[in-house]
Amino acid sequence: MSPPPPGGSNGRRHQQQRQEAVSSMESGGGASGAATKRFTWKGPVIVLVFELLESIAFSGVALNLVVYLATVLHGSTAFNAAHVDTWNGTTFIVPVIGAFLADSYWGKYRTILASIVFYLVGLVLLTVSAAIPSLRPATACQMGESCAPATKTQFSVFFAALYLTSIGTGGVKSALLPFGAEQYDDDAGRPERKQAFFSWFFAAINLGIFVAGTLVSWLEQNVSWALGFGIGTACLFVAALAFAAGTPCYRVQMPTGSPLKDIIRVFVAAFRKRDVRMERDEGAAVLLHEDEAEDEDEDGDSAGQQQRLARTKGLRCLDKAAAIIVMDGDKERESEWSLCTVSEVEGVKILVRMLPIWMTCVLYAASLGQMTTTFIQQGMAMDTRLGGRFKVPVASLVSVEVVFMLLWVALHDAAIIPAARRLTGRPGGLTQLQRMGVGRFLVVLALGTAALVERRRLRAIHGGSGPMSIVWQVPQFVLVAGSDVFCGIAQLEFFYGEAPAAMRSICSAFSFLALSLGFYANLLLYMVLAARYTPKQVAAAVVEPMRPSNSGGSDE
């Protein structure tokens, strides 16, 4: 009888589970009988409509959150900014958990359904808290400058609703896009269809942001907050009904296991073998464990599913995880937590090498987070009137940024990239890292412009010349839009292209983690500033003469 492979019975069982998962992927196994379904547009169209309506619902809350906290719940400037960033940070860290559950246990379809329940409950409670007078401070007090803040009960109800929506939207964000892409897996002959789906998906996100930042924001601030939240609730309810009704059209794949376990295994095995020498006494190198399943299939079927990675130099401490130290003649075999394949080790090496770039993404996300906090607070202290009596919703410039992005895309494709091709000789003009660098430079300019506008605004207030027009904020939003065009897309391409095939889903989830940590970095900044300055100093710096004219419409 031939000896078992390295890793013993546990290693064979682990390998068998991986092969079964691949077989399930190939057959399209799932609740909907995906193996027998041919491609139709019904599933992707429902997913796109769902994302459009969900984007309206989420943005209707997120874009105006700092305004609601200030004008309705009467929170202080530091309090509002800190809680908005805490909520945003939580919202974008939940997708990491959602991706793990979707890949390992529930599958994407069930993860979306479970998330919708939390989402709807949160939005309904949010609408109720804005509609019932006892769950918010008196409306008449909003027009004065000495308004008492909301009570603990009122804040508790509001934040409970807010974090329920955070759980819901986090699960949806982690699973909806890959679920929509799965509908094309039997359409390999037409890859442009899947590419078009990605483009339409992000167009749906931006269209939802635009609608929420213009129409919904205007209704919330000028008619009724309850009406605005109610529209978002209705949008998500319709989206949920459409998604459930489209169940027979979907190709549902079973969960195949998260690569997070394999990542942890590499670190555990390397730590256990930290004292192992990679060279024997006679000078020969220690044998390394290769993934035997990749070598067995000469036709390449397995290779198409299991990416084989060659050993590289550097981070040699991780190579110990693949070192074979138990010989075949020994009775005791190494477990899967003591022995990994070279490909698994190299996958972890790639992730470790991407960490420095990922760290800069955290700081970049912290800069972009200013759009939904300090930029809006700055706009609240400015004159929002245009053309006489028409008042621009403070959050509308965040949505108008989508229009600025379209202009930047046209400039990017028509002038910047052709010029870069002539200068560099590269077909793409700029590399992914160069584009990310340009985006980071533009966001620095945007924050510098916002600081100059703020200094001018404060001088105008203290000089007695009255509040500045909100139009002064346009340049900083134009620069942020350019930063998004250069950096946002390049980051997605970089992490998707550099990551091993088996780890691309977890890398996508880590992009949300970077956003989350960026918002938490903003929270730390606000805590430092709050400790440095007294409330009187903050009140003297953040003059709010426009609060009465910008307060939300009456809900009576």
Automatic annotation (TrEMBL):
One function term, GO molecular function aspect: transmembrane transporter activity
A Pfam family this chain is assigned to: PTR2
GO cellular component: membrane
Keyword Transmembrane helix listed: yes
Region (Disordered): 1-33
Main location: membrane
Keywords: Membrane, Transmembrane, Transmembrane helix
Membrane-protein topology: Multi-pass membrane protein
Segments traversing the membrane: 45-67, 87-106, 113-135, 155-176, 197-219, 225-245, 394-417, 437-453, 508-529
Places the protein is found: Membrane
Keyword Zinc-finger among record annotations: no
Family: Belongs to the major facilitator superfamily. Proton-dependent oligopeptide transporter (POT/PTR) (TC 2.A.17) family.
Name recorded for this polypeptide: Protein NRT1/ PTR FAMILY 8.3
Protein encoded by which gene: LOC100281619
